[in-house]
Amino acid sequence: MKTTIGVIAPHDSLQQIMYVAKEFETITFVPYSYEQLPEVSDILTHHRYEVDQWFFSGVLNYTYAIENELITENEGAYPPLHGASFFGILLEAQLASNHVYRRVGIDTIESEEFEKILSYYNLEDLSYYNHPFKSGQSSDDLVNYHTQLFEEGKTEVVITSIKYVYQKLKDKGIPVFRVTPSYLSIKLIIQFLEERAQTNLYRNSQVAVIGFRINMDPDHLEEQYYSFKTKYQELEVRRELYSIAEKTNGSVMQMGDGLFFIFTTRGELSHESEADLFTLIQDIRLQTNLRAKVSIGFGETVLQAEQHVRIGFRHVKEYEEPVILVVDDDQSISLKQQKEQIDYQTTDVGQAWKEKLKDANLSPGVVSKILSYVKHYGREQFSSQDLSRWLKSTERNGRRILSEMERVGIVEQAGETQSGERGRPRKVFQFLPF
């Protein structure tokens, strides 16, 4: 599937990034420009799940997004600024003013990086004052820092990567130039984001097996096995596991006395399904005084995932609070503990679509959920059967929803597909651009 990358940058930086993006014909780029940093919050709140990865123009807007929990570190990246970029701008400054600058103020680059460049090119006579980027720093503090150094005669020119600082210093009449990431730096980050997006898609398609085992009392094992009470309890557990399997589009198999497996894929597992497992562990302990253990295994094949579940069971110890042991495809083991609150989000459909939905017999929440599933599964096209599975409803209801979305101009028919069963081919649809 074609990778989609969202680009967040001030207008001038956005043009530069999109120029490099033309080289990547297999990637769809969605540009988002902003003037003030808080606008980044609005962009990510409304469009976070519409792309596979986010490209940030620099460390400032990237750090803002991370610190405000608008994205995770696995959802985006920014091109680093290297010493060579600063010297390129310094040369430009000298040519523009016909003057050799020997005292320079800089920011947002590590001093160690700058020292390496000075030493490599024998430029130790160049004096500089650096203010490396710090999390939570104010742009106004940088403006005051550079202004004070210039007024004291310690610097002749300022090179900054932050547009706000550049504009403020320019308004004060201080010689200032703005540095931006190099062509190569932008290109490398785009390649990195594409590889990460493809890796995430591959991981979501991995086999996942949820192992659920109830530990019987060994002193009364035979008595428990033949009791009707135990059978009823087992049926209740099976019912709850079927509910979890339905939410994860999986299937349940009983592998032995008190041992159940749910076969699904990695992408189907969510905070919600984990919460259900924790609740089931607690309910069994309260109702029967028995302890249940849960092990989740991932793998490229069903056999490998099942083996990892059994490895997990061998490592599960007795804990007072419910835990889930997870064995990844590389056999690394991690322990998950229950959280008091589980948070998850769907996609905001945007104001334009909300206006269209006013004339439809549909809620924005339903469309938002469908859009989230489309992005989650990497599906550009989908049918009424897909909708019935995602929304846990009938195929007839899926056809009705598609018909309404097509009528108001949210989706369009993209072709037909043969299901392999008797009857007419099914229509497949795709979302129109926002």
TrEMBL record:
Protein name (Swiss-Prot/TrEMBL): Transcriptional regulator
Organism: Halobacillus alkaliphilus
